[in-house]
Design brief:
It is a single chain. This protein is of the alpha+beta class. It is built from 4 helices and 4 strands, in the order H-H-E-H-E-E-H-E. Strands 2-3-1-4 form a 4-stranded antiparallel beta sheet, covered by helices on one side. A hairpin with a 4-residue loop joins strand 2 and strand 3. The structure holds nickel (II) ion.
Length: 139
Amino acid sequence: MGSLVRFGVSMDAELISAFDHLIERKGYVNRSEAIRDLVREALIKTQWDRSAAPAVAALCLVYDHGTYDLARRLVECQHKHAHQIVSALHVHLDAQDCLEVVVLRGPGNELQRLADHLISTRGVKHGQLVMTASGKAIV
Ligand code: NI
């Protein structure tokens, strides 16, 4: 670890109050530790974005299956990238909404692009990609 650098951050009072509640719930002892973790997470995410290193990932998508043509477009995209899709789990959440969990494997940057495409598809209400490496690559 290098030397410590202190810096000031200006933030809206409501935002910092909400952040303080969040870090208390998560058990951080102070803001510095919480901010360090956020920075590390952001840096790791950016690395995946750019790296072609082998990765595995789980993509969660929540969408309304009644949105015109959406289910077909999501399936078509997955077929197009079948070489990177290990498995997909579909759960009917209620009369309207579906949860799809797609397990991906391939170069990190390509998985990120595929996930960005699926998440940004019109009608997808929420999407989140959890990227990780194969066990051997994790130190
Ligand atoms: Ni469904």
